[in-house]
Amino acid sequence: MSVDDTSAPKLWTPPRDVVRKATVKDYDALRATAQADPQAFWEEQARTLKWYRKWDKVLDDSHPPFYKWFTGAKTNIIQNAIDRHIGTATQNKLAYIWESETGEVRTLSYFGLAREVCRFGNVLKSMGVKKGDRVTIYLPRILELPIAMLACAKIGAVHSVVYGGFSVESLHGRIEDSESRVLITADGGYQRGKLVPLKQIADEALQRAGIVEHVIVVRRTKEPVNMEVGRDYWYDDLMNMPLATRGNGEPCPTEVMDAEDPLFMLYTSGTTGKPKAIVHTHGGYQVGVATTMRMTFDLRPEDRWWCAADPGWITGHSYIVYAPLILGATSVMYEGAPTFPYPDRWWRIVEKHGVSILYTAPTAIRGLMRFGEAWPNRHDLSSLRLLGSVGEPINPEAWNWYHRVIGKGRCPIMDTWWQTETGMFMIAPVPSFPLKPGSGTRPFPGITAEVLDDAGKPVAPGEEGRLVLTSPWPAMMRTIWKDPDRYVSQYWSTFPGKYLTGDSARIDEDGYFWIIGRMDDVIKVSGYRLGTAEIESALVSHAAVSEAAAIGVPHEIKGSAIWAYVILRAGFTASPALNEELGAHVSREMGPIARPERIEFVNALPKTRSGKIMRRLLKARAQGLPDGDISTLEE
Ligand code: WT7
After folding, report:
1. Is the overall model pTM greater than 0.85, yes or no?
2. What is the Cα–Cα distance from 332 to 561, expressed in whole angstroms?
3. Among 271, 417, 466, 528, which residue has the most ligand 1 atoms within 8 Å of its CB, making it the best to mutate?
């Protein structure tokens, strides 16, 4: 190995055979065509899908920023994700190959998936769930998670998936805000061989949220759990009742939806303590996710696609559930931890199932990298032809390892920049396009982005500024659930008419986009998006805490780690035991992912004269950097 092997190349040109076989051969030309008439571009993409009724208008921009796509059209994403495959050869294809942490494999064909979704749709209807009702889903990474999401969509209900790594207060807040009367959960899940007591967490959350009438419990661990008579039902009991099969296997009709009807809401972290639910719709979303996956990941019928995210995040919604199913792809889904029981688990899965495209996050790569090359080298990874990255900027070391050790120098890495709010890739390459490691290359066809200074003027090439999106796109969020004003003020008011991403970025001389990171109070910890205010409010909910501040500091593997500063109430004294207890408290309330890596007891927090905590200053001091501008400080 030469010294050069440890650093990524400045420019990587894809091998000739990759270009020859690529769906999109001239990316810049396609982008130019799309730019000349974006609506025509999206309309052409929409025509590749089925609709009950076609649109009157591609884009209704009469009330910005409340854009509407494919208005007048009737559809349901299930029509494309499931229904249209039935009766074709695809019905016999595998939709999912699922592997449990213990190595058990369960497969589901498109036909089988359609059956399960129909049954569960009927179960939900029997519980009184109707079009427009919200259903909260709190499940581990098992096939019942996509089944539950798809069943909701089929009957026109709006799913709200809460990631299985969240805990009592996060779940409670999300159930209450969404006003869900039905909760779907499991007796438990497995993570690194340990049991996660989901039902117990859900029971605690339900004590705080009185509005849930029915709880459907999937049997996963078979550990005894509390089942409340009249409220809690076993999933498999319900699925085997005549009400699910309707006696003779009568199907569950797919509800005809308006293109703009909501498909799901997904909570994400922002700048306040209150999580906000991002709303996505049936029509534009299906066009956006299918087009981006088809072009960027160049999906072919023989591919075995593995998006290693959790279905509980937007990555999973768009690229484990909806886009792959619309394209008739075969997806691999793995229940557990990448290092269980050994650090070669992922590479074992790639080999065993012949994965051809692997899509994951830089934090996972960095985490696996530290165990050394011997683990992947023990496996035949020759089935891989494309790799993907998402969630945070990928550093050159991780890019190089991923490219050289996993992709054997052959596989292009599709670095996709997007957000819960955007629903689909916004800045991403295609396999035929020359890559610069660490850059997502260019905005996707039909997408326009700029980097602005604080006055709203585009910065010069190479200069850092605020990343904005300057025109609407079909899979864009439509609003924040129950808070349209916040949608306008947070995303569309800083630079009127432009969507503020919250990220800083630069564009180089060749027009390549480089994402630098969040500019707001959002922290990306191991790719998970958390808000400083949420962590602070979890800390303050402990009896000993009077004030708290949370910051993100650079971390080699996680990207950022959470550090917290705490002022105790009178009568409480700082001690290692209390420190430990506060960490455990955050973990219990929000989930283990939010537990601060370090908690420091302090007597005061740096604040501005108006009383705002100066997290920027805490962050600089934590890293031993100069204070910067402290003219507004009143310590
Ligand atoms: C934030 C959105 C959308 C999938 C998962 C994250 C960061 C996302 C990249 C990338 C650099 C990235 C941004 C963004 N981010 N992808 N390829 N390169 N940064 O969704 O939880 O809504 O987080 O993730 O900071 O704003 P999310």
Report:
1. yes
2. 30
3. 417
